[in-house]
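Researcher: Structure prediction, please.
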Amino acid sequence: MLELKNVNVSYGAIHAIHDVSLTVNDGEIVSLIGANGAGKTTILHTITGLKKSSGGSIIYDGHDLTKTEPSKIITLGMAHVPEGRHIFPAMTVAENLEMGAYIRNDKEEIQKSIKEVFERFPRLKERRKQLAGTLSGGEQQMLAVGRALMSNPKIILMDEPSMGLSPLLVKEIFQIIQEVHKQGITVLLVEQNAKMALSIADRAYVLETGNIAMSGDAKELLNDEKVKKAYLGL
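Model: Predicted structure follows.
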């Protein structure tokens, strides 16, 4: 479904991503873990066209994303839940969800999708007329995920969905990711919470200073001594 081959990304003279290759197969949850500053967010931004690569290829569903405008990428069935949520704070919860469906014209189906989001996130339904900027951090994260679902994606890229949340809400967000996956949506998950990310993923990649240091079955990486020592605090 998604394949990166020898992708390189630079910020001026700084070579941030070095020959990164990874694949995400249809129906998988794939986690990309690594320390802060390793380049995880840069990879997601490069996939979605927010950052241009300086080499390599990114093929998604038969399309070369390095040659596709960012505004067109979302029409291919890819949604991005960005780090920091980036909801529209001065708009209501319902208006934020409607913005997530801006590429769609099927009004009845859009309303059906909103209803489905509210069924998945009852707290958002309770706050549907509330300004998004007044929501708690956990509620804003739910809204960011709900907004992404409004585009009917085939794959969702999630960037640090647990950041800044209490342990209880972290657990809830990861349950939501699993529920989204059960809907048939493929997930590429970027996370600093390596233990949680590896526990729900099928496969995973470990990124260190712009390089893929390790990859493989997520459960095997969860039990790998190097990963335990470097990322799990064990």
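Model: The chain has a mean pLDDT of 94.
Researcher: Thanks, that helps.
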